[in-house]
Amino acid sequence: MIVTISGESGSGKTTVGKLLAEKLNYQFFSGGYFFRKKAEEYGMSLLDFSGYAEKHPEIDLDQDKMILDFMKNHDNIVMESRLSGVLAYREAIAVKIYLDTSFCVRSRRLMERDAGTDEKHILARSRSEILRYMEFYGLDYRVFSYYDYIVDTDDFTPETIVEWLMNYISNTQVKNKD
Question: CA-to-CA distance for 178 and 176, rounded, in angstroms?
Answer without folding.
Answer: 6
